[in-house]
Amino acid sequence: MSVEFIGYAAARQASEIVAPEGPVIQPGYLREVARAHEEAGFDRVLIAQSASSPDGFVLADQVLAATERLGVLLAHRPGFVAPTQAARKFATLDAFHPGRVALHVITGGDDADQARDGDLTDKATRYRRTDDFLSVVRKTWDAAEPFDHDGEFYQVRGARSDVRPDRIPVYFGGASADAIRVGAKHADVYAFWGEPLAGIAQRIEEVRAAAAPHGRTPAFSVSLRPIPAATEAEAWDRARDILRLTQDRVGEFKGVRDSSAAVGSQRLLEAAATGEVHDERLWTAVAKTTGAAGNSTALVGSYEQVADSLLDYLRLGVGTLLIRGFSPLADARDYGALVRLVRERAGAATVGA
């Protein structure tokens, strides 16, 4: 079993338990957290996007310039930049850092946050627009000759790009029927929140079935928040501290993002309603507290136990693990032991197959 590890990098440190301090842009911190991920053995870091966050292309370039091997998974919302321009922006970034750039397509599940940037469309319309957007992006990357495109949202004439990448993988997130329909058509890697194993197995089958008519076989990613420690008891002590700190701060950030209409968040809350712990160590208490606003389910246990739980997802057919901590910089450093354990055990499983 091969595995790709993706972490998380932002321009300043913040989380459910860490209140942001100082300027929004802290170049020294961004470089430090990027290097911490590289030293820990991560393959990429996610650069997230919202209607109030710093420009992701600039942050991605800073991360890539500060490291030698680490890649970026750069989130991008279709609808605000023309697809031909977006394709050239990604291709230009990749030309400076070949093979280290990936596109993470975020169609947008929060109507209010979309509206902050002037997008008042509904989710169904946004997914149709994403479909059209990605069709043009692919053509821009691949076409050796000028091309025309006539879609519902985008029409171009004689489009061409002087810079074309060898390959920029497309990651895609979303849990609704519209998301699966569009993502299965375009995604190289389809991304899920950290659901119980049975839910991930179900979703993999749904995406594979939707991708088959397009002749596609996407890979899969799961996003989780590991809480490892030397012993299981110590890990649960830490988890309870994280929950207490999250509960103390939840009023500060719960209203910033409305995840109530996001099917992925609804699925996490449904899991939380049926039990605080699934599959031995998938912990849902933080997801329940925050309204499942994003990646919010944790794996709690010793390093060996958490590594085994991550391997359970790999056995289902997952190839990418997007993991980030509640103490972003310290956890990025600490996860090096976890990354090594998983890779060793995944390699041993492959040899023994």
UniProtKB/TrEMBL annotation:
Record carries keyword Flavoprotein: yes
EC number: 1.-.-.-
Keywords: Flavoprotein, FMN, Monooxygenase, Oxidoreductase
GO-annotated molecular function: oxidoreductase activity
Lineage of origin: Bacteria, Bacillati, Actinomycetota, Actinomycetes, Pseudonocardiales
Name of protein: LLM class flavin-dependent oxidoreductase
Domain Luciferase-like as annotated: residue spans: 4-318
Annotated source species: Amycolatopsis heterodermiae
